[in-house]
Amino acid sequence: MTQKQLFARYLHDLEPGRLEWIGLRPKRKQELAIVDSVEALAGLGLKGDHRCSKTPGSARQVTLISVEFIRLIEIYTGLDRVDPALLRRNLVVSGINLNALRHQQFRIGTALFEATALCHPCVRMDQALGQGGAAAMLGYGGLCARILESGRVSVGDQIIPQESEL
After folding, report:
1. Domains of the chain
2. What is the pTM of this model?
3. Which residue would you say has higher pLDDT here, 91 or 30?
4. DSSP assignment of 48-83, as one string?
5. Which of 105, 127, 128, 129 is nearest to 116 (CA)?
6. How crowded is the C-beta side of 111, counted as CA atoms within 13 Å?
7. Distance between CA atoms of residues 36 and 152, nearest Å
8. What mean pLDDT is reported for the chain?
9. Predicted confidence band at 7 (pLDDT cuts at 50, 70, 90)?
10. Closest to 86 in 3D by CA, of 39, 36, 34
11. Quick check: helix, strand or coil at residue 112?
């Protein structure tokens, strides 16, 4: 049985998660724009995010991290609070095992996503979080995803894993 098949079996038992926060990166290395809702464009990315026009078809159109991962990053860095904007991910979710969504399809709002890979931290996290910031994020950097069907995503939307063929 493949990893994808094992995860698909696990997802049957999951309660939906929740979208907590949306951040768009208008340009590389610039401050994020925090929004309540955004259009997810199939094959491109989130409207208004610099990656949207960069590499159509990319496996890294959207990045996700969970509130639960952010809490662990806070513990490992010793910081009281980590602002999601510092982590430069597009979507912050809660209430779902984010790593179990890897290689799976899921809906947020009316858009359909497919998680493609782990989103590893870069050395810029040491600048954002202090010495050891990137190390604190190892295993907790979230996921990259591509958008399969366009739709609107809004803070408060459920994250619903989709049934897949085993």
Report:
1. 3-158 (2.40.33.20)
2. 0.90
3. 91
4. TSGGGGT-TT-S-SEEEEEHHHHHHHHHHHT-S---
5. 105
6. 27
7. 11
8. 90
9. low
10. 34
11. strand
- CB-count exposure of residue 27 (10 Å: 0-12, 13-18, 19+): exposed
CB neighbourhood size of 26 (10 A):
11
For the record, the structure tokens of 112 come out as: 């359909």
Q: What pLDDT is attached to residue 110?
A: 98
Contact 93, 67 (CB under 8 A): yes
Reply yes or no on whether the pLDDT at 15 is more than 80.
Answer: no
Q: Residue 40, SS3?
A: strand
Q: How far is CA 91 from CA 110, 149, 164, in A?
A: 15, 17, 23
How many other CB atoms are found less than 10 A from the CB of residue 22?
Answer: 25
What number is the average pLDDT over the span 81-85? 96
Alpha carbon separation from 43 to 58, 100, 148 (Å, rounded): 7, 22, 6
